[in-house]
Design goal:
This protein is α/β, with parallel strands linked by helices. The chain is 53% helix and 9% strand. Helix 9 crosses helix 10, helix 9 runs parallel beside helix 11 and helix 12 runs antiparallel to helix 13.
């Protein structure tokens, strides 16, 4: 007979042999005893924790000739057919390869028929989360109201991918990871049955490496026994699994604690020469410090795996570090694991991390006192250069603004009335209160550059919206544009504000806020009169009747000019 793998040979055949899932086995056993057998079950949990094995046990418990029973005999023809996979009433479906709607339609047709030999037809759907959306939808009605002789058992490692409509129609059981102690007991039973001598430390190392999966533990044990010559030692297990081992970890931790950098580098070189995986090395080192961290926080706690069973050794090593240091070391090890994935020389990342741990005093100052200070120092020179450029641009613009403000103040006497002739009405007239700004040639040039920037960056919609706007000036915090009447102003302010401000900032190097003022459309100015004498004196207050106003009326006029501007309009320029 061909050799049978250990995980198949030692698969649980009844609820009593189900390791580490007492909450599931007890609940199902009570349901069978009371006759409250559900029509659909959903088993979820990590790989190798007994989901499919429990499904087969439940199928045997329902169809055993002595059943329904909580203890299937495994001797009757029904149990033997299920164990061998030849039962006509138990169907194992791999949803990973039968995930389409056609397969589910075939299933819906077969559930109508009565069982051939047993009491129930049991459908075990493994990796059910791999079904397509259409397949899940096709299964819904059958899953909700199946025939009385049908039981569905679905297993998955990713229950979050199973639709809520499916989960609500099932009794859900969550399988947990099996503890190291439970796996260790099972491994001892296996090696004793096989007549193999095995060290407890070797079996514990396999149990830890399995990470909570009984199937993984039995597979690793099967692999180790093949090279053990009827004896299983810790050295053989370390060699076969690529583990560095407890002895090496103890030496490395001692070297890190004493800051012996030469020993640390020599040990890394030995590991590389012996073919060890550096990522595995850091993983084991992180687990070792994790045990020290837990011991420092809570001491020896029952049920907690400390990665090393020697309590005296844990106490000795934990005394050499503070809790803060251990947490920082674990974080640095995890960073090194991430660096190895992208480094062309993973060895350098490992050596740098271990040497930094040896010098944890200076490293901790950089991390706890001023985290990221070294990076900030490296970027400081670059930031200083950028700030200097921005300051130079700002000084230039501020100088232009001051010059413009001086000219405006010189042409405007106290009281707010113009010193010279009142200006003609322009094409557009502001309707809102103007902001104190200055219109300069440089400002107009910046606005034209802003329009060009929008065009070059492909923001054609923004350009089409603002190209009919008028640049009205800028100060040290704002730049103002006049918009045509209608919805344009609201569109620019609510939708395109960010685009315009970014484009203006890109060409000016400044961070200014955009202010929109709606402009009332005015008729085109009349053509200028030819042969105007340049020596014609400008109009005075008397020409506009201002001198005939009393003091109260002049005060009101001054206030109006402050609010609406000092550009007086000729009556003939007003719209009809």
């Amino acid at each position: 007979m061909a050799y049978m793998a250990l995980y198949r040979k030692w698969r649980p055949d009844n609820f009593a042999n189900l390791v580490g899932q007492d909450h599931v086995s007890h609940t199902l056993a009570n349901a069978i005893k009371s006759g409250r057998i559900g029509h659909a079950y959903l088993f979820s949990g990590p790989r190798g924790t007994g989901k499919t094995s429990t499904a087969k046990i439940l199928a045997k418990a329902l169809n055993c000739e002595k059943g329904p029973t909580t203890e299937p005999c495994n001797e009757c023809p029904a149990c033997q057919r299920i164990n061998s996979g030849n039962s006509m009433d138990v169907f194992e479906i791999d949803a990973a390869s039968n995930r389409g709607i056609d397969e589910i339609r075939d299933l819906r047709e077969t559930v109508k028929f009565a069982p051939v030999n047993g009491r129930f037809k049991v459908y075990i759907i493994d990796e059910v989360h791999m079904l397509t959306t259409e397949a899940f939808n096709a299964l819904l009605k059958t899953l909700e109201e199946p025939p009385e002789h049908v039981v569905f058992i679905m297993a998955t490692t990713e229950v979050h991918k199973v639709p809520a409509t499916i989960q609500s129609r099932c009794q859900r059981y969550d399988f947990k990871r099996i503890t190291v102690d439970d796996i260790l007991v099972r491994l001892k039973t296996v090696v004793n049955d096989m007549g193999i001598k095995a060290e407890d430390e070797a079996l514990r190392m396999i149990a830890v490496k399995a990470e909570g999966g009984m199937r993984d533990a039995l597979s690793l044990l099967d692999q180790c026994i093949a090279l053990s010559d009827q004896s299983l030692t810790m050295e053989r297990v370390q060699q076969l699994l690529g583990l560095v081992g407890k002895e090496w970890l103890d030496k490395l931790v001692d070297a890190l604690q004493t800051k012996n950098t030469s020993d640390v580098l020599s040990m890394v070189n030995e590991l590389i020469a012996s073919g060890k995986d550096l990522q595995q090395v850091l993983g084991e080192l992180g687990m070792h410090f994790r045990g020290l961290m837990i011991f420092k926080a809570a001491g020896l706690v029952d049920g907690v795996d400390y990665y090393t069973p020697e309590s005296e050794n844990i106490k000795k090593q934990a005394a050499g570090f503070t809790q803060e240091q251990i947490v920082w070391i674990i974080r640095r090890i995890h960073e090194a694991v991430g660096e190895m994935k992208w480094s062309p020389q993973p060895r350098i990342a490992v050596e740098a991390a271990l040497l930094e741990i040896c010098q944890w005093e200076s490293a901790q100052k950089g991390n706890f006192a001023s985290d990221g200070a070294s990076a900030n120092n490296q970027e400081k020179s670059v930031d200083d250069g950028r700030i200097a450029q921005l300051e130079a641009k700002l000084a230039k613009v501020m100088g232009m603004l001051r010059n413009g403000a001086t000219v405006s103040a010189a042409n405007k006497p106290a009281g707010g009335r113009p010193a010279g002739a009142p200006s003609k009405a322009q094409t557009i007239q502001p309707m809102a209160r103007p902001v104190a700004v200055n219109v300069t040639e440089d400002g107009m040039a910046l606005w034209q550059q802003t329009l060009a920037e929008l065009k070059n960056t492909g923001k054609n919609q923004v350009l089409a919206c603002i190209q009919n706007c008028t640049f009205m000036g800028m100060n040290d915090t704002q730049f103002i544009i006049g918009t045509p009447p209608g919805v344009i102003k609201g569109l620019i302010e609510r939708v395109y504000r960010k685009n315009v401000e970014e484009a203006f900032g890109a060409v000016s190097g400044l961070s200014l806020q955009m202010v929109c003022q709606e402009m009332a459309a005015r008729p085109e100015p009349k053509p200028p009169v030819e042969n105007i004498q340049e020596d014609v004196p400008p109009p005075t207050d008397d020409d506009f009747g201002i001198s005939e106003l009393d003091d109260v009326e002049k005060q009101r006029l001054d206030t109006a000019m402050e609010v609406f501007g000092d550009g007086l309009v000729h009556p003939e320029d007003l719209p009809e």
